Input
Amino acid sequence: ADSVDVYAAASLTDVMNALVEQYEENHDVDLVPVYASSSTLARQIGEGAPADVYLSANVKWMDWLQDQGGVVVSQRHNLLRNRLALIAPDDTDIPSFTPDAEHPLVDYLEDGERVSVGDPAHVPAGIYAKQAFESTGQWQTLEPRLARGSDVRAALALVERGETPLGVVYATDAQASDGVKQLGLFPADSHDPIIYPAALIGEHPGDAAGAFLDWLSSDAARETFEQYGFEMAND
Amino acid sequence: MLTELEQQALWISLQVAGSALAIIVVPGILVAWLLARHEFPGKALLDGIVHLPLVLPPVVVGYLLLVVMGRRGVIGSWLLETFGISLPFTWQGAALAGGVMAFPLLVRAVRLSLEAVDPKLEAAARTLGATRLRVFITITLPLALPGVITGGVLAFARALSEFGATITFASNIPGETRTLPLALYSTIQTPGMEGAAARLCAISVAVAMASLVVSEWLARRTRRRMAGRDTGL
Amino acid sequence: MLTELEQQALWISLQVAGSALAIIVVPGILVAWLLARHEFPGKALLDGIVHLPLVLPPVVVGYLLLVVMGRRGVIGSWLLETFGISLPFTWQGAALAGGVMAFPLLVRAVRLSLEAVDPKLEAAARTLGATRLRVFITITLPLALPGVITGGVLAFARALSEFGATITFASNIPGETRTLPLALYSTIQTPGMEGAAARLCAISVAVAMASLVVSEWLARRTRRRMAGRDTGL
Amino acid sequence: MLELRIDHRQGDFHLDVDIRAPEQGVTALFGHSGSGKTSLLRMLAGLDRPDDGHIRLGERTYVDTRQRLFVPPHRRRLGVVFQEARLFPHYRVRGNLTYARRLTGGEAFDRVVSLLGIEPLLARMPDALSGGEARRVAIGRALLAEPDMLLLDEPLTGLDGARKRELLDYILRLTREIELPILFISHDTQELMAIAERLVLLDSGRVVADGELDELLGRAELAPWLGGFEASTPISARVEAHDERYHATRLALDDGQLMTLPRIDHAPGERVRLRIRRRDVALAREMPSQSSFRNRLRATVEQLDDGEPGMVEVSLRLAGQRLLSRITLEASEALALSPGDDVIALIRSASLAGSAG
Amino acid sequence: MLELRIDHRQGDFHLDVDIRAPEQGVTALFGHSGSGKTSLLRMLAGLDRPDDGHIRLGERTYVDTRQRLFVPPHRRRLGVVFQEARLFPHYRVRGNLTYARRLTGGEAFDRVVSLLGIEPLLARMPDALSGGEARRVAIGRALLAEPDMLLLDEPLTGLDGARKRELLDYILRLTREIELPILFISHDTQELMAIAERLVLLDSGRVVADGELDELLGRAELAPWLGGFEASTPISARVEAHDERYHATRLALDDGQLMTLPRIDHAPGERVRLRIRRRDVALAREMPSQSSFRNRLRATVEQLDDGEPGMVEVSLRLAGQRLLSRITLEASEALALSPGDDVIALIRSASLAGSAG
Ligand SMILES: Nc1ncnc2c1ncn2[C@@H]1O[C@H](COP(=O)(O)OP(=O)(O)OP(=O)(O)O)[C@@H](O)[C@H]1O
Ligand SMILES: Nc1ncnc2c1ncn2[C@@H]1O[C@H](COP(=O)(O)OP(=O)(O)OP(=O)(O)O)[C@@H](O)[C@H]1O
Ligand code: MOO
Ligand SMILES: [Mg+2]
Ligand SMILES: [Mg+2]
Output
């Protein structure tokens, strides 16, 4: 059977595992999912990693890859959308609310308590969180109170463990974790759209790779994506 | 020459790695001694636990630290209640993470050197009226000094370069826990920041080299002091 | 008992860590010998380079490896053109990454032991007609065996737990470069997979413990063989 | 009383001894290489545990396996000089000497240091010492620990003659003045003759003989082990006077006969003990005139024994004491000696140098 | 010819020697502890480089600092026995013995092993050996390297008398049978008397004297160093006959006078050399009757010298050779000795055991 190397952002790990299984049931193809942070994957593909399909967790690294000479990116399109969620440990006393300008997060923090986020310097979820804080006018107050994780998962873990009373992660993460409660979604317009672009990699991408990428936009795939909390981007 | 951010990261790194070394050096030597010169039940277990941070991915160690030392952790909650101390998100926490990761390297090197100390000399010291403890402090340990130094360098370097456990347990807080490796990681994850990454990389290397030079000098001094014949062969 | 994925990761880990150890053991001993018993120009530089992987965050080392050994890298492109070999994204590449990260630990331990070998014995061997090389192979190295074993364990354990450099340089390819720590990372990235993570964690620990037990046994055998008086004191 | 009852195996070697020695003077451990001398010393020092047995020094029990008693080495206050120097390589000579922290300076320290001739070495590291220098430091280290007993394992090897004699004298004085008991291992028969009062003879881990050195030297069946000793007899006498002009000392035996020997440092009236080597005692029937013999002593033949081939061991009675002479069979027949004969024992004064103690 | 010209500093110590010794026989290095014996041996073995100088053995130049020549130790083929045993702790005794890989089995191996009495130890690890056992293995290791020259640094310390004599005999035979030159360091004067032909006397890194042992022992100014030797004179004589009944051998001096000594293993007619200790030579004016002295030799006083306080060293001419006697000042005055006097030298036959070589 043909083999297709799918380089997917680490935040897609669980859904992609499910999709791979689902796809392989009906197709005579060997899917090889490779997970790492979008940045690591982009750099590896830039260095010639044998990727056939790349699913990035943000637009920036797909752009960066396209800017590199020597790598051919084709059939790029936005595959998924996600939302940014405010979470708390599942035993929290804080009731659900929408984290907008009317509800500054500092009001929910005791002295010395922090909000865990992905590092706004480079973790995509952190960057979105920063945008959301800025657009709601609380960046100045919150910046010194952030606990920055190396990735979304780290931010999630801090909330799960009760180290921070609040955290900002993707809605998909909030849904998947048993240890946290989603307090609310940040207004969709408070930050750039959270988009997962997908593309074929290489000068002569195989038919199997193209078929799989197409299938990811199919209804069958959509069902699974939505089950994991993603929205289809459809553009 | 250095940007303010770089200076800050450098300073935190030194503070964290230095503290990490400081907190593990005595327990490290003690554990090495136990493992090198004693037989006791549970020795294999202790040996195993000491090595854990070496065999687990750092992020996992950081997570385990969070489980144990976090505010809901067994020890962490006790610390918080009793002393009001909370380690995550503090540079002390980063030092703890660095220390834990560096611990097996220190213990191994010290143990190796302790085992190489001639028991004949220890026996001679015993007959001169020295207790086991005095023998250890005055004979065994000084003779194992090269190992302690080597272990110290390894530990310091390891703590200096510690990333996974630190960011997981102590988070990446500028001015508090953002050490050089954390700063470096941030830049490397950002497209187009290769220049800044290279600078941070160079700073890390410079610090490490400096500590290396110091340790070599120390070790050489120890050795030269004792050197007699047959050393130039 | 183990799932197929776990078995696969375990097997790759063993293969990678074993190969890492195999490729560094001879150069490691050689470099340790050079550093321990010789003076030459550039010694400090060599010492520094050896320690680099220890002081840099693993991800950075992986990135540097990618830059140097990747298909566009200085060595990587040469390797590709001359032998058609490409290391990144292969288990051999993972072994290289593990080996590079483990190298300083091996060298340090071996060097420490080499330095502890009594030069009097080497001198005696020289008078018996042994060349420098024969003295090294028959006297120095066997007497430094505890250090080689310790260095080997440290290196093996380090390679076994290697994550940052591996995922960056060799990627996280199932069946090829997805070692235990990488598999662990993948599960840990997924909320709700704590059970699977714990299992992988346990497997890692078990492997590490097993290698520890073997090394302890080896070391003990070496020591016991030579043990005479004053060892039980 | 020093009591050592030990039953111990190490490898093929079986140490099985039961020794009782007075808690004073010098007891020598003698025996072939590998006979177990060092092993015994190690048990006494507390560096090995006997499989079975007990060790007592005076009131104190160091080891009693039946009672599971074992006093650790650092609480035994024994000064040990090992067969190898075992200096601490990371301390200077001074640091080695004062490691036990009992005598770290002052007169006693200076005395030991100057006796050993190691003043110029005090600031040296041990690896820069010669073999003999290291050994002297090791001896000093043990002495300065002010032990209750000294255990010396071939302490004087590698030292030159003059230094050896000085140290032997010093050790002898230690045993007398501060009554320090000493266990002394050596293969050097002259050394032992000079210093040891008692001798424990070991062979393959067993005690072959144990008693007064002089008595053991007289026992023919021990010749295979003690043959190397220049057999001698102790004679006790009183210092009569010193002759400064001739640098000589006159001794009086109990029957009033006088002896002359090179000047010794004992006051007139003091009793001294001479060791007279058998081969230095010649015999004559008549008092010779005009010879260099200063000592011409009237004695009576008590007994004649065969010695090595061609030799006869003659027991003489001299002033109520026993004196042994070794002469050739030929001479014995020429003199037609038989028990009861009166003879003149001729002893060269020059041969008596250093024989008094 | 062995040529050692060395000028070297280590710490405060300055080694400055210029020695030329024949490339055969046993040359002894003698001197106080710390006089530089081991340092010299190390240079010869190639373990240290002299600051300045050259070292040659026969045709080969080992070191010449002017020419920047330095032959590394492993190409010098010298068998070294160090002051400490220096066994390889990770090889069994057999592995240590065969490390040089020259003689690894066969007759020669067996001979050395049985001479040293170490057969039962072959499978042992060195740390389980006694001090003397380890030393014997070290000697064996050097012998089995089949060296062109042996360098022995106090090799026999820690060995018992019997074993020591056996080894001395063996070493002597080596120098004679296979003409192996030997450099021998020892503080034991008896050992040196038995084995050394030449002696290099070191003091504080300088050569005080260098020559035939017998000649040096006769030089009064060397007494401060060589006083510890039981000073003796060599006398050459011819074996006349053996007396089996008395287990004795008669020797004839060149003037026909006869001497008697305990049976030696030389055939009648062979010339032998006796070493006669000075203190064993008594003097008389008249031939004594009825004494145990077998040797009563007519001699002439040549010279009288002061010795130690109260002692006189008398040089005698005996059958064209020189014989030294040590008597007390008192005896010398009593006998009223002066040069030219005829005297009788009395030498006990019992004292001559083992003096022929
Ligand atoms: N590395 C060194 N640094 C300084 N001095 C040294 C060093 N090694 C030896 N010496 C000194 O050199 C002198 C000669 O030493 P050497 O070992 O040659 O003496 P030796 O004649 O063999 O004495 P011994 O009979 O005690 O073995 C000694 O005074 C010693 O202290
Ligand atoms: N660890 C050991 N294992 C087996 N045998 C040993 C061990 N240590 C010593 N022996 C043996 O025990 C015997 C006695 O050794 P010990 O050291 O007491 O002899 P020694 O009388 O001191 O001899 P030396 O005069 O040579 O020093 C020797 O035959 C030795 O080989
Ligand atoms: O692993 Mo990502 O690139 O943080 O989704
Ligand atoms: Mg012994
Ligand atoms: Mg010496």
